[in-house]
Structures are given as structure tokens and as C-alpha cells.
Design a protein that fits this description.
Length: about 240
């Protein structure tokens, strides 16, 4: 069994200024105010429409992100229905094959100790985890690890008994690694970040979306400034 951290990757080439220019052109169609457009007017215009709540204009730009996370986050992510998804299929993926290393891969929970350096030999021998050379026998860590190991064993046993992958998947853990490609327009991404970066969101989902918001904010001017301030700058000041 392999343990990895969750991650994201923006799959599009991002030209932040081109995005602002496109949104300005779309928005000025509403007002027929093209006479006020200049080489430097896009940023001011986009700030104005966001401030005024004219967010439908943001729907003209979509971004695609590939997430590597667990099945629990997948269940929450796909509740955002104004988006398109392509998801790693446990019906057709057979994790006993060489292409998967003949093992399942699980996502390191952000609320447990970092178990990614651990090896199966360490855990089975010491009934704990070897973290940077220091033994750790935290009960939460052990229960999570051995729960996933038992699920992996049950999965392979079902395959050995003649079950198909779609039948054997019924015992796979919620922490199973899952690749998700999500495409949404900028208005929907704002909604996702506003909900899932909140302190009340599930910690695994929140950690993933905070990282993604930082990336969006770095690449795309103006659109996510207010959300970045809400979830990062206030915490830094505190």
C-alpha cells in the first residue's frame, strides 16, 4: 500500500491579462460602453463588476484542474453541479495489475501525522510508524493505517476469488487515491472556494482548496483578490 499527499494541477495555460480583457469585452456588451475601453481599463472594469455582483460575466471563462485526492473529497466536490468532471473509475481500474504497482494508493489525511515516509515493513514490524527515524504509535494513525491495509487485503482477496474490479471495489477505503478532472467557470470556482475554504469545511477538502485558491490568485489578477484576503490575509494578521 502506498501513501501519498493530495495535490492539484491547473491543466490550462493561464494568461491572466487575456482573461481580464475577455471579461471586460463580455461585460461592456451589457453596457455598450466600448468607448471607455483602453489598454489599462480591464482591471478596473472587472473590479467594478465583482463589487457590483455582476458575476454572470465571469461565466465566460472556464478553468480545468486535475486533483489527486480521496473518495471522500470526490463526494463533496461533485456536489458542485455547475461543473464538468472526469473521474478515475474503480469499476475499470484493477489495482492488482502492474500498472498500479500491484497495490492500492491512499491519500494521507491532513489531520493525522505525516505517514508518507513510512513503509509497510516499518508499520507491520513495529505496529506503529517510522517517521524520520522516530517511532510513533498514535492510536488514530494506527487505526487509519491498518483499516486501509485490511481493505486492501479484502480487495485483493475478492479479485482472487474471481470478482471483477467493480465488484471488489465495494471494500475499498474512503481514503483511496482518486484522480479528478474538474472544469468550471470562474464564477463557479469562486463559489467553490468561498464554501470549501471556510473553516467549517471538511479539513481534507479545505486544505486542497486553499492550495488551489492560492494558485488561482497567483495566476489570475483581480478575480480572486477578495477571497484570498478573506481566507489568508485575515489569518496572517490574526
Amino acid at each position: 500500500m502506498k501513501i501519498i499527499e493530495q495535490s492539484h494541477q491547473i491543466m490550462d495555460y493561464i494568461d491572466g491579462q487575456a482573461i481580464l480583457n475577455k471579461i471586460e469585452d463580455c461585460g461592456r456588451t451589457c453596457y455598450q460602453s466600448f468607448d471607455k475601453k483602453s489598454q489599462s481599463s480591464a482591471e478596473k472594469f472587472v473590479r467594478m463588476i465583482i463589487k457590483n455582483g455582476h458575476l454572470s460575466v465571469l461565466e465566460h471563462v472556464s478553468i480545468t484542474v486535475k486533483f489527486i485526492t480521496d473518495r471522500g473529497v470526490l463526494a463533496e466536490m461533485t456536489r458542485h453541479r455547475l461543473a464538468s468532471y472526469s473521474v478515475e473509475s474503480t469499476r475499470y481500474c484493477n489495482y492488482s495489475k502492474d500498472g498500479f504497482g500491484s497495490e492500492i494508493t491512499v491519500i494521507q489525511p491532513c489531520f493525522l501525522h505525516d505517514l508518507t515516509p513510512a513503509t509497510q515493513h516499518d508499520t507491520d514490524k513495529h505496529f506503529g510508524f517510522s517517521l524520520n527515524g522516530e517511532p510513533n504509535t498514535d492510536a488514530k494513525d494506527m487505526n487509519w493505517y491498518f483499516g486501509c491495509r485490511q481493505a486492501e487485503e479484502g480487495y485483493f482477496n475478492m479479485l482472487d476469488c474471481g470478482c471483477t474490479p467493480q465488484e471488489a471495489r465495494s471494500v475499498l477505503p474512503m481514503s483511496l487515491k482518486t484522480e479528478i478532472v474538474m472544469t468550471a467557470n470562474l464564477r463557479e470556482w469562486r463559489e467553490v472556494f468561498n464554501q470549501r475554504c471556510d473553516s467549517h469545511a471538511h479539513p481534507q477538502m479545505r486544505a486542497l482548496m486553499l492550495d488551489t485558491l492560492q494558485d488561482f490568485h497567483h495566476r489570475i489578477p483581480v478575480i480572486f483578490d477578495d477571497l484570498y484576503s478573506k481566507f489568508f490575509e485575515k489569518e496572517e494578521k490574526a
